[in-house]
Amino acid sequence: MRFLTTFQTLDFFDTLLSLAAAFVLGTLIGAERQYRQRTAGLRTNVLVAVSAAAFVDLAMKLDGSGGAVRVIAYVVSGIGFLGAGVIMKEGTNVRGLNTAATLWSSAAVGSCAGADMIAQAMALTVFVLAGNTLLRPLVNAINRTPLDAQSSEVTYYVRLTVVPDAVSEMREKLQDALEAAKYPVGDVEVNELSETQREIVATLVSTAVDPKELDAVLVRLEAHPGVRNATWDSSTKE
Predict the structure, then answer these.
(1) Would you state the pLDDT for residue 143?
(2) Is 167 exposed, middle or buried (0-12, 13-18, 19+ CB in 10 A)?
């Protein structure tokens, strides 16, 4: 058997160390994703990290650093296809970008481990975990800050959740209330949420919005019979 003539104990333990490091570091990254109940959780991130480490380690053993560089290039592009599978578009919102980026990071961690750069893989893991955890409060604080329409292209949406029988009446009242508050309406859509609920979505023409003023309009609308919820949000194209 060729295995008996080519097997080298030191090379085997070197590979084993690389795979073990990728497994442990991928577990740390995946555990955070699993805790957040993301599409790609613990097992996916571990498999990505270990597989990347295996490919890079194999290339190192067969063709040295030159072969590893070529394989890493393929790993980077290959993970792009895997990441696309966790990205989902829901209406105007796109979900899964952070999860896809985390998968890419797990592949980078595995590639470092496979190239025997375990210290660098550990450092990268720390930065990935910091990005997904320590930066979360900052993201939430930024998201709560009202957008300035004068400095960015912003679209505002006013949403009413109503019973089916109140759709026609509340659609008209919503438009009238917004026009009276000097918020011109560009479009109004009605979406079916369930058999007992409909969502009226009014898109405002690009304009500066006073959050307190808009909240006051929604409080008045929410007081009408048949209205279950009233809220507003915004998105930017920048």
Answers:
(1) 62
(2) middle
